[in-house]
Amino acid sequence: MYQRFFGLRESPFNVNPDPRYLFMTKQIQESLAGLTYGIQNRKGFILLTGEVGTGKTTLLNRLLDWLRGQRVATAYIFNSKLEVNHLFDFMMADFEIPCESHEKSQVLLRLNQWLLERYRAGETAVLIVDEAQNLSLDVLEEIRLLTNLETSTEKLLQIVLTGQPELEEKLKLPQLRQLRQRITLRCRTTPLSLEETFGYIGERLRIAGASGEPIFSKEAIQTVHMYSRGIPRVVNLLCEHSMINAYVDSLRPVPAHLVEEVAREFQLDEVAPVLSAGSPSGGAQQSANTQALLENLDDLLGRLRQLNVVPSRERKS
């Protein structure tokens, strides 16, 4: 409803991981380059980690778009609450590999045969496992064993393991040392800097059809960065609801005080300050605070949907 007021074709701040809206920060560029390089050169095991809400899934969707354009076979597993047999079921179904037997030995034989056929044809297969920090040690070990499907010179299956920073801690466990040693490339997503937040908001508005006339004041974007702490998912939330409130009040550009109101509505002003990554326990504290912030947002949004209500200013319209 506010798009016409701001001269936009579509909503620029939807939280869906639309690969069109992937903002290419230096870190994202490096991660995407690392992922594509590792897959093209059959490096075997690639790790992608990052804070909650920093764009891992959007990055993966961009990667999947590229892989499909290259006619690469892909299997994407996003349900991390699975058992070993489920892992193989999902993988075989995504790869569209027919197998009459559900016995693990027969499934592995069929998978190996299929991978060899693709290898001889000069084709690649990629398994992407998302939210891997929640996988059991048994499932992670089975994923490691899949890298044993290889020729004398190259890996037949390329595996991208993705998760939150807790995944890196999990991989330090003695039981997973063999898996840790097989990781050939490590990629990472990070929160946006203030400068990147300006670029991120501007780019999403451009893609949505903005003509170039300022939609957010400079102070408003600075306020968005302060409350979001550079987490893109929270930036989207603040920007979308601030634009709705500005539409209700017929204000252009969006002023900083509306961003502050939205931050208070979603209790972002109550989240504990984040320690710097260099301070003692800073990384762990940042991860915990960010997780709490996003869980709080998800809970609030869920309750709003159940009650079929929206923030106060939106109700006025």
Estimate the helix proportion, in percent. Answer: 40-55%
For CATH, the homologous superfamily of the largest domain is named as P-loop containing nucleotide triphosphate hydrolases
- Provide the succession of SSEs: HHEHEHHEHEHHEHHHHHH
CATH topology annotation of the largest domain: Rossmann fold
CATH C-level class of the largest domain: Alpha Beta
Judging by the overall fold, what is the CATH architecture of the largest domain?
3-Layer(aba) Sandwich
N/C terminus separation:
10 Å
Q: Average pLDDT across residues?
A: 87
Question: Largest beta sheet, briefly?
Answer: 5 strands, parallel
Number of helices: 14
Quote the beta fraction.
Answer: 5-15%
Sequence of strands across the biggest β-sheet: 2-3-4-1-5
Low-confidence stretches: 272-285, 307-317
The whole-angstrom Rg is 22 Å
Number of strands: 5
Structural class: alpha/beta
Q: Which term fits the overall shape?
A: elongated
Domain unit count: 2
Which descriptors apply to this entry?
alpha/beta, 317 residues, five-stranded parallel sheet, single chain, 2 domains, 5 strands, Rossmann fold
